[in-house]
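Protocol step 4 of 5: obtain the predicted structure for the target chain.
Materials: sequence only (see below). No template structures provided, no constraints applied. The aim of this step is simply to have a reference model before the mutagenesis design in step 5. Sequence pasted as it appears in the construct record:
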Amino acid sequence: MVKLIKYSAVLSLLFFFAGCNLPHPPLPYDPANPLKRVAILPMKNDTTDVDGPTIVRQKMAEALENRSYVVKDIKETDQILRDQMGINLGGQLDMTTAQKLGETLGVEGVLYGTVMDFDETTTGILNVKQVRGKFKLVNTQTGQVVWTRGLGVRNEVKMSTTAGSAASAIAKASNSRDKEVPWVTIGSTTSGSDKVGKSFATGLGTKLFMKAIGKHLDYESEEMARRVTDNLGWGPGTAVAAAPMPKIAMPVIKAPEPPSFGHMEYGKRDFSALLISTTVNKSKSDTMVMEASIAKAGQKFRSDMDLSKMAKGQQGMPPELSRMVLISRGDKKVAYTLYPNKNRYMTHPETENEGDKPRIEKTKVGSETIDGHPTDKFKVRILHKDDKVYEGFMWNARDLDGMTIKTETENNDFKMTTELKHIVLKRPEASLFEIPSGYTEAKDFMELMMPEKKN
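Step 4 output (structure tokens):
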């Protein structure tokens, strides 16, 4: 019988980063953090864009939630500030104290912010989107500033000529003089044109379109908020939210159901390859690509992934966890997840029962040649014990003892294609399936995020 390799860990990550509202590992938190609830105050505006502070404020609220803080609703915050303190703008916050704000808003922390840049420059030679701000988080019980930082992000599209490169270099050199609130370039691409007029028209058209749909500088604002808070201490977690509220029946909103990862049969051959999985979210017109280097030796299997290289690779994922290595040791009935950025690993027993395995139905529907390999094409139905049924196609290479080199599944919400590339039929080194020296085990996710004790 063909040996199947489990991909449950990869599945969870793939669905999460594809933008589904599916359960994912809980964020780290610090129960000792006294800032149980935080209010994001109106932003000061040092720009000419009236919408910038509102957009940046919302992105900072989301960023704090992704750092395990309980954030007070912005609309409620504004109403209380307006009705009880007469404050409508960020520039009016100097008229009161953090302690008074905390008492009035019922929070232990307040986040102040100043939007320093929020603009898009379109010249044709160089089109630049940039967002910059500085922030501070204050303990309203003590008045102490517990965190402060500023950062700017820029995203550029330059004309594909020496003039475009020169303009980019000059702009970066100018930004480099801002030492107190530095700039980070998050994207630098060429317009594909060597004509100023065409490049200018393209940049202006994009700018007007994004403003029309309410997404002007949305990505840059989100990246700025995520990056500026990446050194902020973890919040106390949602479990410590304030006084209990009356229970209100809320409608259940079901997330779109993604298709399965694909039924892959690797057979008895030892090999290494590059696995490429492409997921299209039909409702959002988003495409997410995941690449993983995989290796198989008997009952041993390994997969290496760098989530930071995915389209949404680090959304909600701490940078120190972006690189992952999954090792399945079927010979020992155990699996490991390695985090090379931390030299840590976690152990997971593999206790799948026969009754937990899905039932596979295959029907041959044709033959095709893929990447030079003659294959048999099958229509596949995957029936899980929870009555979920996934359908799709798989292509098994006849010159590779029936190894699956492509799968395709689709439903109303998603289309997923998985392919094997650069297949090398050679037994991988045994060391690939062992825990490297210098790694220490973490018993759970919380321990994984904690710094190691020094001897």
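Step 4 remarks: Residues 1-25, 193-214, 239-261, 311-316 have pLDDT under 50 and may be disordered. The first helix runs from residue 8 to 17.
Proceed to step 5.
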